[in-house]
## 1
Amino acid sequence: MDREFWLDRWRSRRLGWHLEEVNPHLTAFWPDMPVAGDGRVLVPLCGKSVDMRWLAERGHAVVGVEISEQACAEFFDEPGWTPEVTTAGEWTRYRAGGVEILCGDLFDLDAATLGPVDAVFDRGSLIALPPAMRPAYAERMAALLPERPPRLLVTLDYPQHEMDGPPFAVTGEEVAALLGGGYRVACLRDWDVLEESPRFKAQGLTRLHERVYRLTAG
């Protein structure tokens, strides 16, 4: 899975991961996250997620990272925002409405370009990556977040042999092994969502769990 894979998904409108409404786990668990109301929140591999608007409406400065220029443009077009667009090296920065999106490859991002981060919301990053790419993702995130800000993470877990990803299955053990360094990992919700996920059930899945984790420094 490379840059072209995701750009093709956007061009062909195969956007099965995109939600038109705010993620219910975000609204349920974010109010208890240990982050100031005006804290800066990172949303990695953000697409055009409306979750970013929800966070900005609550006073947060939001920074997303997204590889697709199309996704970045659509995020700002849909609410009728006209973003300020600037470039810095290989990165294009879009900014409006309390949200900025850095357009480029997360794996090329450095902490200086990203800037300070007070919390992270990750609904789609870890499950978007096949197992071979996840250690590099974990290493990049550790380099970007040296102060270990709190993170709210949503994953899916299912028998991987029953369906090709993305989204890929991620176990709780893998979350702890990949991301637990310097963090306390708490599972806030373990939810069986197979019956309410006909798209996945039709592909032959026999089990589908959605899990929500809170990672806090410790």
Note: The chain has a mean pLDDT of 92.
## 2
Amino acid sequence: MGRPEIAKVVQQTILRGGVLGHYVLRAYVVMSNHVHVLLDPIQSLAKVTRGVKGVSAREANKALNRVGKRFWQDESFDRGIRSLAEFERVRAYIENNPVKAGLVAKPEDWRWSSAVTRASE
């Protein structure tokens, strides 16, 4: 990870949204150039996305000493999960992202991922 302090900002923002009750967080991974999140929204998905992107962009830009600059791209992609098998496949895809990228040997070795918590349960 090029900037661990920025990954931590994004991770903390994702975790906080779950604690605040905006969604039930199921899985996530923060990579250097993208993020995957699997969640059950409690608020509207548009509000969740705006909140996570807004808070993390503000905090990341502060840490980077940048003010008013774009942090996230405008687009985001969402899709519904229709079965337990699909849920498990998507969760595994998310948590295995750093392994597939050759960054770690096991998902739980990537500290900006839900795999770390799942491995310790």
Note: The CA atoms of residues 1 and 33 lie 10 Å apart.
## 3
Amino acid sequence: MEEMSLPTRKIRYMSKKIDRAILKLSGEVFGDEVDPIKFTNYESVAKEILKIVEETKIELAVVIGGGNIFRGREAESDVDNTEADAMGMLATVINGIGLREALVRNGAKDTRLMTAFDLRAFAEPYIRLKARHHLDEKRLVIIAGGLGIPNFSTDSAVAQYADELRCNIIFKASTVDGVYDSDPWKNHKAIRYNSVTYQEAIVKELGIMDTTAFAMCKRSGIPIFVFNISDLDKLPQIIKGDYSFGTLIHK
């Protein structure tokens, strides 16, 4: 894999202060090829999140996926896609409960789990102003259930919530270390971008997030930093202006 440097774009953004961020976590981080759910994975992710918040003092929301359990798009073609998406949204709630439990057990007593649909026995319903209040009070907020409607991915959800919660940046944890000009799993000569604009990501169909999410971020102007989930512990470096271990997508 090769790297394409576009440093002038990156430097322009570095001067902006990051005090509120939203982190997109794919469900795959909570399982492996054998076990879809591993409580040790919730534990390790929770500890990294707590370290990040402690070191940087940022206000942090987390949008959580459910791909380790079920993805709506993986349903067979004759299965109703609305019902399949409903199953996928419920899968994200399972991960949300698991991560909240690990965060609380490791010291984040006032962590809040919010869902896009009503599951009051397990989580608070997501209300924009209430979620902002939790962040203002320095509480960790986990949002599960996507947008609560079928046909929209958790990528679209994180773009929407980032805007509603007035976040400075989206952290997109991925299985690769940034955005490439082609699939790095299939092409070992794929080039990694240091920086790319929303429009370039849409036109070139770079694929790290869906087109709807890119369009939403382009409208709101909220930048996206794509990095490898194994580098989660490096997020404090971004707060200090180091974007070298991923790809920044912005204006």
Note: The chain is about 35% helix and 20% strand.
## 4
Amino acid sequence: MTQSLLVGKGGKKLSVLPMMANRHGLIDGATGTGKTVTLQVLAENFSRIGVPVFMADVKGDHSEISKPGTEHPKITERLNTIGITDFSFSGSPVALWDIFGEQGHPIRTTISEMGPLLLSRLLNLNDTQTGVITLIFRIADDDGLLLLDLKDLRSMLQYAGDNSAAFTTEYGKISRASIGAIQRKLLALEDQGGDIFFGEPALNLDDFLQTDENENGIINILSVRTLWIYRMKF
């Protein structure tokens, strides 16, 4: 069994057993008490034993673990306090991701892959509107049409609304009022950058489960700083 991973030391050493790492955990503390460094240490430890890691980076400082550190009196003091004698500076294998494609590999998915249920929750649709979205997806599937991005979905909604009478017998009534409400929410989502998120190539989750040539787990870091700014705006 892989030995325990040292996280830090106060009065006693704090370690994590890899086999228990799928449990829930909370890192809490005031500003400057080491929350960010603790997360980085955990990520580096898992990477060294071949476990890929996914991290959301709000402040934009986690990417530094890709670079080897440098000598500093405080680091030396801390190593002596913990009792680590075989320490050496090294970087970790990192893959940077960004939904907007500005600070890393873009993350995208298609409308079809998201599906009607998740999309309805994303748009905060009511039950009637969710039913309409479900019908739209069914019509597209039956006609062999791929819904890749927001433009595809908006076009499909318009087509279904213009031809609602023709679909009533087979699929049920399609409310034009609901279609209008959905279209407005799609426009709002597009204004928030949703048009960047939807499209091809779609993300394969296996991309987050990779190791490097030395069998170290890749640390996947998603930049969410811009997402946070958008959240504050809207």
Note: The radius of gyration is 24 Å.
